[in-house]
Amino acid sequence: MLAVLGQPGPLAIILAATLVSVLAHAVSLPARSNQLDFSHYYVSALALREGLNPYTTRLETLARPLGLDIRAIRKAGYPPAFLLCFEPLTLLTARAAYWTWTGFSTLCFALALYLMLTAEVHFERRLESLIVALAILYQPVWYHYKYAQSQLLILLLVVVMMRAFARGRDSLAGFSLAAAVALRVFPVILAGYLMCRRRWRALAWTAGWGVAIGAMTLAAAGTTGLYFLKVIPFLTSREFLARPADISLGAFVSRLFWYSMGGRLGPVADMARRIAATAAELAVLAIVARATIASGRNAAGQDPDWNDEERRALGLWIAAMVLVAPTAWEHYLVLMLIPLLLIADGAARRVASSRAVWAAIASWIAWPVQSLVFATIVPLTPMRLRVGSIFAIAELSMVAQALGFLAAYWFVSDRVSEAAPALSACPPSAEIG
Description:
The chain is built from 21 helices and no strands. The protein has helices at 2-5, 8-28, 38-49, 60-66, 80-86, 94-120, 125-137, 139-146, 151-166, 170-184, 191-196, 200-221, 228-235, 238-241, 249-261, 267-298, 308-323, 337-348, 354-380, 383-394, 396-413. Helix 9 runs antiparallel to helix 10 (170-184), helix 10 crosses helix 12 (200-221) and helix 18 crosses helix 21. The radius of gyration is 22 Å and the shape is globular. Mean pLDDT is 90; it is low at 417-433.
């Protein structure tokens, strides 16, 4: 597949499509400069800088004079460490801060791709251009820019963690993971990877850096930061879980209950929903842990610091991290670029099974298919079926998420003997052993 797309003709078409896509999105961004989620970041950090408690203050009183639209989200919902890091941008006007933040996110994206392409995966120069173009065209990247989100920063921190592991620098790896957890919390799931791999030194560094970052956060924000714990129930409430754009496994299981039993569940049914969601998440973590431990046995005799099995296992944990996060929106899937790039590299080196490769391709394709159906079929649907069809098509986001996870799982669990040589993107001389 990559070999075909990397030919001059298809590559030229894809590069042209990428340029058109970037220009089209760039034109639309100015209208987003006062919208969610950037507007919420800005007023939350501004409230903290002005000595207010952003977790209890009604933020619309700050947003309205600045012309910022925060909709119905009237209190901060982000960790205090993130708001403290965002504070310097509130010294700028909201519009200037928006473009600064957008530029910073683009720098994180570029650095993450650069580090992956120069160290973690290996393609011919022509195919590198193709991979970058496909990464830019990946729809969750656009969702990220649309909402001026923060996951590209987390992407960079995770890639830095990977590079630090490869070089045996557990302190840097621990700092990167601890910083990601402090900024967005859900990357804490990657600690499971460290435990399954028995990387106790890296885990200790992560805990140490976490304590240090936490102490500095408390020193800077005071007890205000502790109020973040009180907003967690709101962030995991039905108001968010019921939206198909929330692609966490717990949210999807909850929606299955609401779809089948109606919006108002009785106490018993609601308890069953919560138990089912938790059980599904624990099952995923158990499956991932088992696959990680098994792949560690397969890596016996190889470089204990860093090898192909390590990369595969970490890619699987990244996919699981998004899947079992308490809430996970479509833009979280920019993190799936890591396992998708690893699978593409595996296909090029003939060490990825065909089902892993095709699941990864299907995960990527599900996004443009969803957009195409929304633009064509949904408007032609009879009005009485319109709401149901919108929800059904919106759940394709969850399908894309599930396919990405399956691809990462099969990439870890399938053996080389099941590889698909027809998908090779590099000549034998260019293969990495």
